[in-house]
Write a structure and sequence with these properties.
Chain lengths: 497, 497
């Protein structure tokens, strides 16, 4: 008796899903728990699991099974989506040879290590050779994958983070943004000028109380601590697996504001992972759709919800109780002033939501030119500084605050940056749709009721997993494809009224 | 060009080694970090990695490679040891069919779950059916493996924990112990009687200070925190991997004595794992030899070293400083009285070193009879209580404090118990050998210098990995095979002089 090829594939990909979950926990452990001396051993463990996954995907039987299943597609639409995701994973695994995989791993590791010296030394030349070497391998990978995926090389790289994303989509979106954002920024800066220097609440904020506050708000947002954790790490992130979501933050005794907003941001990611469709657990269709929607969920929570006036009104008394203080700095008005400060700066990760897109546009243009070969690595610092001048009218005083600031390229990650701004734009579009459906939603936020927002996202975004394209999920949820209108209205409403 | 079969095997087993390390970290995480709701998912991850290892070992190519390599053995003795360990792993993996593996996993899991109800309910009947079912599968496994390993079924089970161990070896050792221990115990009890009730130091011992004390002593013993951690878990254990050793303990604010000795015990395990031969990392020969030597290392540290008068003299002032107290209970004499109290009791894990072997002998006799079929599961409670009466002259008032106390059998673990007492005996033999080589070693301990002891163990035990048999390692290290003489002298010296 011949087995249904689709069913056989489900079993094979289920194995991959379980191994990827094991890797997710090991990655979390590496960032949060692992002692410094065992980095090499951990890398070997993770590489071995990578290899096991690759072997499953490169088994010629998988190719036969996929071809058979595709010629007689399974009946349900969801299964067909799962089958398409299976194929996508298999293409990514098979598009490049084992030699190139090994060369990329080595070159990434070397370049990243060199970057860790070059950045504090503020010396781009120290890393330029390694970056050049890595870039040429990434170009090869992009070309190999582009052929299999039938897209352009840069698109093949984006496909790793945001499946199916095209250069044209990004260009349209970014052109739209640049059509209004520079003037809008100018207006915001003019409006904020009288406020002068704004500093966040400073004082002594014990870490255990900051943690209590974080746990309280995470719980309010629907984070279930029987299925997840909050820990500390140098670089905050959301890791783990859907039934064991682990977010991290870092604390400073002097200030709670960054850590608090960071926790809320990661909670948005966590809710997405947590609510992925259970019935597709460990299957490709059960994974989060892509980084654009993922970022939309963290930014929906952080930017749309938690920096809203209503939310800050809600937490101001909570903060005062937590820290047993009545300081003026903890009033809603002070929190608003702090959390809404707009200022062009050199550093992307410190940027406010108005200037952030400029940072992304810059990186998008540059990485596209690097991949196409139009820009040489040696010309990167100048290209960066020119773009900063054009976009934000400031020039980084050094490469540390310029082209050396982000780890992405130096670790081989090209094609990721656009998803940050896609996420920000999608978040605005989603929150606008939620407000259309529940016109009184913001009154709820004022009293700490977020249930309608999270439930809406759960149903319309999270539970969709990878069963639909990003575009379809957004259209089904908000009634329109990704576009900058809601984002524009959001910025205008928040910063100019 | 044909590749050297041994070299090919090394590559395959290297993969297994890396995956086993990943599992070790996931196991640690499960006990220490994992939130309660994700047990099922973690079990699936671990089972998948088990399956990957099994597939590597069951690949028919491995059989061919092993046969080729064995017919033209590699030149070095160490490589031949590694090859023998490869074969042993392959035999264990192939001796029983996939159906039986699945049935065993299910039956263990069911029986253990039922035991978790039966023990608090004090109701053996609640779990007897599940135990009977599990036992018959374990018997099948034992028979299957015995055939391949050419040994007796119970020996095949012991082989999983202590390779090559025979019933005859155990019988000789346990007969030797029983020849002197009952009378010795009587004498000790008579000598200790005037002391009356001894309770450990009680009071308020803040957990962070207990942890500081533990870290200090671990560091003194050579534990390197750049390559390991100390955490908390319900059941203390030593996990992780050689470059990332993770031990756990549990604390009570009311008393520090159990936790402290527990940490020192696990530190003994940790030093063994840490010092395994680096050049055999991820190969079978690079693993710890077996549970007997493993337990010898934890008991060398805990029983031989840390309950010695010299050590307690060394830590008494340290404890006083740590807890900022001059209480009499923290004097050396009080610590000695507490840590040397001998008393027959029902519970193995609470037993002192004089009565502990009786608990092990009891379990050894019973589990051997269960596996051979001479003892029926339904007769287990009576057999247990009879044996307790014969050995320690006490009868458990209920099965909770009798045959339900240990998890081992109910989770499918048979053949493990003897290694506890082998370890205790070996520890005495090893410490005696160290003292012969360094007659002034105990003076060093008095001042907190343990370097000669740990270095001796590192060279003669830890660095041997699985390159020699347990027996050879002990003979090379101590000049004699495992025997009870040093243990007898140790007990006499500590408790009767």
């Amino acid at each position: 008796m011949t087995q249904d090829p689709y069913k056989v594939l489900e079993k094979r990909y289920h194995r991959i899903g379980a191994i990827k979950e094991a890797q997710a926990i090991l990655h979390w452990d590496m960032a949060v728990m692992m002692p410094s001396g065992s980095a090499e051993g951990r890398a070997a463990q993770l590489a071995e699991l990578d290899l096991v996954i690759h072997e499953i995907l490169k088994d010629p039987e998988i190719e036969d099974l996929l071809t058979m299943a595709e010629s007689e597609p399974p009946i349900s639409r969801a299964q067909r989506s799962n089958l398409a995701e299976m194929r996508r994973m298999q293409i990514h695994a098979n598009a490049i040879g084992a030699d190139l995989v090994v060369a990329l791993t080595e070159a990434s590791s070397k370049c990243e290590m060199r970057w860790r010296q070059a950045k504090p030394a503020n010396d781009f030349k120290l890393v330029s050779k390694e970056l050049q070497n890595l870039l040429s391998l990434v170009q090869k990978k992009a070309e190999g994958k582009a052929e299999s995926l039938r897209c352009r090389p840069y698109e093949a790289l984006m496909d790793e983070y945001e499946p199916g994303l095209t250069i044209q989509e990004i260009d349209v979106l970014f052109d739209d943004l640049l059509a209004f954002l520079p003037k809008l920024l100018e207006k915001v800066l003019t409006k904020q000028q009288p406020a002068g220097l704004i500093v966040g609440p400073s004082g002594n904020f014990p870490i255990d109380r900051q943690r209590d506050l974080a746990l309280t708000l995470m719980t309010r947002l629907g984070f279930n601590f029987e299925l997840g954790r909050l820990d500390m790490s140098l670089h905050p992130f959301c890791g783990g697996v859907p039934e064991d979501i682990r977010i991290t933050t870092r604390y400073s005794e002097e200030s709670f504001v960054e850590s608090l907003m960071g926790v809320l941001h990661e909670t948005g990611h966590a809710l997405y992972e947590r609510n992925l469709p259970r019935e597709w657990r460990l299957q490709p269709a059960g994974e989060a759709r892509g980084m654009a929607l993922h970022e939309s969920q963290s930014l929906l929570v952080e930017m749309q919800l938690c920096r809203s006036t209503e939310f800050l009104e809600f937490i101001s008394p909570l903060i005062k109780t937590t820290f047993d203080s009545r300081a003026e700095q903890l009033n809603t008005e002070s929190l608003i002033a702090y959390y809404r400060k707009v200022e062009p700066g050199f550093i992307r990760v410190d940027a406010d939501e108005v200037t952030y897109p400029f940072h992304v546009v810059l990186r998008y243009n540059i990485e596209k030119s690097l991949i196409s070969g139009d820009l040489l690595v040696s010309d990167l610092p100048d290209a960066w500084n020119d773009a900063m001048r054009n976009l934000l009218d400031i020039v980084p005083p050094d490469d540390q605050r310029g082209c050396l600031q982000d780890i992405h390229w130096f670790s081989g990650s090209f094609g990721y940056f656009p998803t940050y701004t896609m996420g920000a734009v999608a978040a605005a579009q989603i929150y606008a749709a939620i407000q259309r459906e529940y016109p009184d939603i913001r009154e709820g936020v004022r009293t700490g009721d977020f249930s309608k927002i999270t439930e809406w996202c759960c149903q319309k975004i999270h539970r969709q997993g990878s069963l639909e394209s990003t575009s379809n999920i957004l259209i089904n949820a908000t009634g329109e494809p990704l576009n900058a209108r809601a984002f524009q209205r959001h910025i205008e409403a928040r910063y100019l009224t």
